[in-house]
Every structure is written in C-alpha cells, then in structure tokens.
From TrEMBL:
Record bears the keyword Disulfide bond: no
SUPFAM superfamilies in UniProt: Winged helix' DNA-binding domain (SSF46785)
UniProt keywords, alphabetically: DNA-binding, Transcription, Transcription regulation
Pfam families named among the record's database cross-references: HTH_20 (PF12840)
Full protein name: Helix-turn-helix domain-containing protein
Gene Ontology terms for molecular function: DNA binding; DNA-binding transcription factor activity
The species this protein was found in: Nocardioides lianchengensis
InterPro entries, per the entry: HTH_ArsR_DNA-bd_dom, Metal_resp_trans_reg, WH-like_DNA-bd_sf, WH_DNA-bd_sf
Length: 192
C-alpha cells in the first residue's frame, strides 16, 4: 500500500469534515468501488447530491474514478484514492483559514466520536449484529505504542482488503474506531 500523503490545505480538511462527504469516504473505503446511485441509496440522499459530493472529493484527490469497475465508458464508478491522506492539523492551522477549518473539523470529529460511543453502548438497536466496545490501558514506551498502532493498522487493512468488493445481502458497513494515545490525565500532569 502506498504511503499516505500529508494534507496541509484547509480546503481539503473542510472537504473531509463535511458529514456527507465523510460518510461517502467511509462507504468507499469499506466497499471498494461504488456508483453515485449506490451511495445515494446507502446514504438516503438524491443521486445528483451524491454526484456533486463525489466530484468535490475527486477535486481534492481524495477519491478517483475506477474505470475497470465500470460497465461502459459512460458508467462512472468511484473508489478511494489508493494513497489515502494523513491529516496534520498543526500544519493545516498554519495556513490561512487553517485554524477555523481545524476548529470545525475537531468539533465535528468530537461530536461524531461521542455519537459512536453512545450508539455502541445502546444494545437495544440492531439486535443480531456484532458489537464490541473495548477500553484498555497499556503501559508502553513510545516505540511500543508505534508498533502496536502499526499492527492494528495492518490488521484492519488486511480485513478491509479481504472483504472489500464483496456485495451480498448480509454485508453492512461496520465501523472500527480506535484511539491510541497517552492517558489524557497523565498528559495534563506532565504540563503542570
């Protein structure tokens, strides 16, 4: 897998932060290649709206057309950019408009994370689906934390490659959301 490209442009960050575009990126990452009509059905939005958002994501290099998946030359099928992106909020904040874009992205990201946690703990929904919530503490060096992080990335990437492109009735998009970071209370103690 090619190395992800660093993002320093606030416009790209705003494109990623948009809720519909973010969901499109999620679905393309999980499914592989999809048409605007497929995404419209998944997201319950009009097809022309899905097409507009796809063009915006393509404009910033976040997705690209997948001609091999198209039925003919008129059929537009989209996939995630093979390189992916690596957000560097510190660098983005140095650019004009970067602090505002970063603030919006951080607020939307925090709200989304909160909603994910609430949904994960709500066992009344979607009976019969697999669900897992894990909260673990580990004592690691920086190098061990990097190694663990890379192992998790590799594992999830392998599962994505293994299941991407399979389209049967039992499949649905599952979300894997994880954070590996020093305990926030300990970080605060270090700065005091």
């Amino acid at each position: 897998m090619p190395e992800s490209r660093p993002v320093h442009d606030p416009k790209v960050l705003r494109a990623i932060a948009h809720p519909v575009r973010n969901r499109i990126l999620t679905e393309l990452d999980a499914a592989g290649s999809l048409r605007a009509a497929d995404l419209a059905a998944l997201l319950d939005i009009p097809a022309n709206q899905a097409s507009f958002h796809l063009r915006q994501l393509a404009k910033y290099g976040l997705i690209e057309e997948d001609p091999d998946a198209a039925r003919d030359r008129r059929d537009r099928v989209w996939r995630s950019s093979p390189r992916g992106v690596n957000l560097d909020l510190g660098e983005i904040e140095k650019a004009p408009g970067g602090k505002a874009a970063s603030a919006v992205y951080r607020a939307q990201s925090a709200a989304k994370a909160h909603a994910y946690v609430e949904r994960a703990h709500d066992d009344r929904r979607d009976e019969g689906t697999a669900r897992s919530v894990m909260d673990s503490s580990l004592r690691l060096t920086k190098d061990e934390a990097r190694e663990l992080s890379q192992e998790l990335v590799d594992l999830v990437t392998a599962w994505g490659e293994r299941t991407r492109g399979r389209d049967d009735a039992e499949r649905r998009t599952y979300l894997y959301y994880a954070m590996l970071m020093p305990h926030p209370d300990l970080e605060q103690e270090e700065t005091d």
